[in-house]
Amino acid sequence: MAADLIIFDCDGVLVDSEAISCRTHADVLTRHGYPITSEQVSERFLGRSTKQANLEIETELGRKLPEAYHGDLQDELFRAFEADLEAIRGIHDVLDVVTQRVCVASSGSHPRMRVSLGSTGLYERLAPNIFSSSQVTNGKPAPDLFLFAAKEMGVPPERCVVIEDSLAGIAGARAARMKVFGFYGGSHCGAGHAETLRQAGADLTFSDMHQLPELVRRIEVDALTG
């Protein structure tokens, strides 16, 4: 296949935000009556939209989360991003050299990405080609967001490569019939995460973002010679 578009997830792929996000979600949820650890947040909700997570939590609670929860979560998350968030090592270098078009397809909201990508110098490099699950009916693991991003970019799904760190993202990319690379270079990725991504259906896995241009080139060569 010829790869014309690289679709990046945001959290854990462009910015090393997952550990910060899971810790903040756990702290705020616990404070608002839903005790949970950051590890449990990661296991249950990594890669999924806040809307999906909230619906699941509210079903368990049998009530709506208090209105203050949503404002507290956003305020604390944005403060943590501005104070501690870093870009994934090598991503700026990769954006300098890849020849394919690039875009972002994230379960995060546009305001969240404006802060996370903005604080790491990535927003200006990627805008306006930044797409959120808020723009589709069904977020990951459904294929809707990836198909929407490809359509907006004018590229057929079979000519897209998705870079994902979550099981929901891998599932969504596969459902969209796109090549998907599993990235496990974020600080939240423990031992065994690469194998977990492979078992979920990633076409290949990698932990160093500097490898990406060569990996994309390799699948193009393999398609020509295979």
TrEMBL record:
- Kindly give the Pfam families that the UniProt entry links to this protein: Hydrolase
Q: Which GO terms describe its molecular function?
A: hydrolase activity; metal ion binding
What this protein needs as a cofactor is:
Mg(2+)
Do the record's keywords include Magnesium?
yes
Cite the entry's keywords alphabetically.
Answer: Hydrolase, Magnesium, Metal-binding
Is Chaperone one of the keywords UniProt gives this record?
Answer: no
Report the NCBIfam families cross-referenced here.
Answer: HAD-SF-IA-v3 (TIGR01509)
Organism, by scientific name, is Bradyrhizobium cytisi
Query: Do you know which SUPFAM superfamilies this protein is assigned to?
Result: HAD-like
> Mind telling me which PANTHER family this protein's record contains?
6-PHOSPHOGLUCONATE PHOSPHATASE
InterPro entries from the xrefs? Beta-PGM-like, HAD-like_sf, HAD-SF_hydro_IA, HAD_sf, PGP-like_dom2
This one is known as HAD family hydrolase
Q: This protein's superkingdom? A: Bacteria
Coiled-coil regions listed: none
What the record says about family reads: Belongs to the HAD-like hydrolase superfamily. CbbY/CbbZ/Gph/YieH family.
